[in-house]
Amino acid sequence: MTMPTLQSVQDDYELLDGDERYRLLIDLGRSLEPMPEPLKTDATLVRGCSAAVWVYPTRLPDGRLHFLADSNAAITKGIIALVLLTVQDRTPEEIELTDIEGVLAPFELKRQLSSNRTQGIPNMIALIRETAARYRAG
Asked: How far is Cα 76 from Cα 120, in angstroms, rounded to an integer?
């Protein structure tokens, strides 16, 4: 299954309500490429999430970053998939310049989901930004 574009997800999301939006996020999480179990370590764990979320960066030959991610909760897996759609396969510089929160604002996740489900989003974003800064610095 290939990842949809952020715009196509947003277009679909805007047409849906409540439970249908949950299903869309769950389906988005299912479209993540599999993350090998050995990569799910304490070092790749996102802190501050109610569910376990792992994010592992890889660097493509041309310098762009490609992230693998997973979660033990279906909705949370969909959320990290949505976050990754904003930065996947971009250069560290592009990631640092991306207003991830602004790009995600139309999804109104804080309004749509419980605070338990959304509390870790800033931590996911911070980890991605820190990773991009680390790769940019060399």
From this structure: 9
Calculate ∠ Cα 118-88-36, nearest 5°.
80
Q: Encoding tokens for residue 54?
A: 């792992």
Q: Domain holding 98: CATH number?
A: 3.90.1010.10
Residues with Cβ within 8 Å of 52's Cβ and at least 6 positions away in sequence, in order, are: 40, 45, 71, 72, 73
pLDDT in tens, 77-100: 999 999 999 999 999 999 999 999
Contact at 8 Å (CB) between 28 and 4?
yes
Please report whether residue 1 resides in a domain. no
65 is catalytic: no
Give the max Cα distance, the chain.
Answer: 44
CB 55 within 8 A of CB 22: no
Q: Which of 49, 83, 121, 132 is catalytic?
A: 49
Q: Are 57 and 135 in contact (CB under 8 A)?
A: yes
Total domains in the chain come to 1
